[in-house]
Structure formats: structure tokens, C-alpha cells
Automatic annotation (TrEMBL):
One of its GO terms (molecular function) is red chlorophyll catabolite reductase activity. This is Red chlorophyll catabolite reductase. It comes from Trifolium subterraneum. GO terms for biological process: chlorophyll catabolic process. One of its GO terms (cellular component) is chloroplast.
């Protein structure tokens, strides 16, 4: 599921949200992929980049090792963390924080000297790191051959459905009414939910 939203804000300025989420089906229990870049001013962006787990990492330590440790996924978060303008971003949604992986990138990037520095950070750091994380997901998750039993498939279908619907509700449900008005937002959200329950 991908989206790009641009809206002029009543208070001045604009809001740009770029999102890409990739969900695997129940025949593969590997992590999904989430990318979101929110730019609410020329000098501030929020970056979300993660491979959310689909199994309990405490009960399945091999899952943690295979998808997070062996792939050295956390090195990408550590690299971004070294940039002076980068600060941790803590979403107010406990649900989003609950489904994130331990290597999740949740950062707020703010500069003081105009949008040129933000553009430089996007070009030189966010762009290559996002592509590397996507590459890890494609090579080790999307193309992974995993033996998933029927009981696990039913669990994954249920879990993924709950996460998709809740994410749509929390993420899009909070911004769409402001961008499109309550009635249009409700219709859009219902269509998106219906599409993903098929």
C-alpha cells in the first residue's frame, strides 16, 4: 500500500506524507515493510522505517536472529542516529510502538538553516539507508521460503488483519479528516479497509 498526500495547511505551509507498506501473505511469516516520511515544514521531517515482526521475538529467538541480528538491521538506525540534527521520535500511539521491531527507525529531523540541509540529509542519508533496508526486506523476507503450518497461517491472517485495520485507523484516521473533511475521509478509509479485507 503506497500513498502520497500533499495538503495546504490552514495555519500556513503544507503537509507532505509519503508512505509505503508491504504486507506478506500467510504462507510466509517473515516481517512486513513500513516506510513513512512526513514533512510538515521546510526544516522538519519525521521518518519511520521498520520491518515489523509477525512473531513474538521472546518466544521465537531464532526469528530475532534471522531477520534482525544476522541482517545487521540495527546498523542503519545507528548510522542515522549519528547525524546531529536527528533526534528520536516517540509516536503518541502505543499501538504503533507495540508492533514495531527493536530495530525500528523513528526519527525527527529538524534543521535551523533552511530546507537545504533537510534535502541534503534526505539525499545523502535517508535515501540510501531506506533502499538498503528495502533490499534486506526483499532478499531476506519477501523472497524467504518459510515453512508455515496451517495453524500458523490462521494466526498470521488474523494478526495481520488486526494490524492493518488498526494502522489505517490510527495513522490515516488521524490525518485524513483534517485533510479531506470528515465525510470524504470516512469514505476513503472505508474503501481502504474493504480493499485490505479481501
Amino acid at each position: 500500500m503506497g500513498s502520497w498526500v500533499h495538503a495546504e495547511l490552514p495555519t500556513g505551509g503544507s503537509l507532505d506524507i509519503t508512505s509505503l507498506s508491504a504486507y506478506l501473505n500467510s504462507s510466509n511469516d517473515a516481517p512486513n515493510f513500513v516506510f513513512e516520511l512526513i514533512r510538515s515544514s521546510p526544516t522538519m521531517i519525521i521518518l519511520v522505517l521498520d520491518l515489523p515482526p509477525r512473531k513474538d521475538l521472546v518466544l521465537w529467538p531464532d526469528y530475532l536472529k534471522t531477520f534482525y541480528e544476522d541482517t545487521k538491521l540495527d546498523t542503519h538506525r545507528q548510522a542515522l542516529e549519528k547525524i546531529p540534527e536527528v533526534q528520536p521520535y516517540v509516536t503518541s500511539s502505543l499501538f504503533i510502538r507495540t508492533v514495531a521491531s527493536p530495530t525500528a527507525i523513528f526519527f525527527r529531523i529538524q534543521t535551523e538553516n533552511g530546507g537545504e540541509r533537510i534535502d541534503e540529509i534526505i539525499r545523502d542519508h535517508i535515501d540510501p539507508i531506506s533502499k538498503q533496508v528495502l533490499g534486506i526486506w526483499l532478499d531476506h523476507c519477501a523472497c524467504a521460503e518459510r515453512d508455515v503450518g496451517e495453524e500458523d497461517k490462521a494466526y498470521l491472517r488474523k494478526r495481520d488483519g488486526v494490524i492493518r485495520n488498526k494502522t489505517i485507523e490510527v495513522d490515516l484516521g488521524s490525518s485524513f479528516p483534517r485533510l479531506f473533511g470528515p465525510e470524504a475521509a470516512k469514505q476513503i478509509l472505508e474503501a481502504i479497509k474493504e480493499y485490505f479485507t479481501v
